[in-house]
Amino acid sequence: MLNLLVLAAGTGGCIGIDLASGALARANYPVRTLVPLVPFDLATAPIVGGDDEPDPIHPEQVELAQLPRLTGHLGRRRAERWLPPLLPPDTDLILGFSGPAVPFWELGGSRPSLAVIQPDRPPRLVHNKGEARLRCRFSWRNLWHELPVVGHGEHGDRRMVVALSAPLQGHCYKVVAGLLP
């Protein structure tokens, strides 16, 4: 059974903190649907059993046997107690590499595909002309980044969840999976 503190949710899955281990987890739903979860919701679902090797692109990924069930909600102060251990050290790059993408064949499961970061300034959502997707512009460690926004939960100004996308034309891209209030 997986008990999660939800940080971001979208169609087909959610990202959260496994309450048993304190680690980030990417939970894939058994069907591609939207479960109405918001940051700091508590949810539970059984995990599909198996001895499969971790996905080299998304080593934190778990497959759920059922859609997650909402079991509660934490206030911001209580939820934020779980976040400091997840913030990357000052010497790390976002998801372990510079730039917005990495060739998928370079991923072997040794680096994370999820990160919680605290930008230097509140992030700004921008819509570039000609693009269908919102982008998030933020400064982190005095460098400006602009990444596409996926999922839901686009309101927040303190911390953000950055994830690695599935391969697209040979590369996996950094995306903002959610902003935390």
- Helix-strand pattern: EEEEEEHEEEEEEE
What gap, in angstroms, lies between the N and C termini? Answer: 27 Å
Biggest sheet: strands, sense, closure?
6 strands, mixed
Number of helices: 1
Using only CA atoms, what is the Rg? 16 Å
Helix percent band:
under 10%
Fraction in beta strands: 35-45%
Shape: globular
Explain this structure.
The protein has 181 residues and is mainly β. Helices cover 3% and strands 39% of the residues. It contains one helix and 13 strands. The strands form three sheets. It has a six-stranded mixed beta sheet, with no helix packed on it. A four-stranded antiparallel beta sheet has the order 7-13-12-8, with no helix packed on it. The two termini are 27 Å apart.
Concise synopsis of the structure shown:
With 181 residues, the protein is mainly β. The protein is built from 1 helix and 13 strands, in the order E-E-E-E-E-E-H-E-E-E-E-E-E-E. 3% of the residues lie in helices and 39% in strands.
List the helices and strands and how they pair.
Elements: E1 2-10, E2 13-18, E3 24-28, E4 41-45, E5 61-63, E6 69-73, H1 76-80, E7 101-103, E8 114-117, E9 124-126, E10 135-140, E11 143-148, E12 159-164, E13 171-180
Parallel strand pairs: 3-5
Antiparallel strand pairs: 1-2, 1-4, 2-3, 4-6, 7-13, 8-12, 9-10, 10-11, 12-13
List its traits.
6-stranded mixed β-sheet; mainly beta; globular
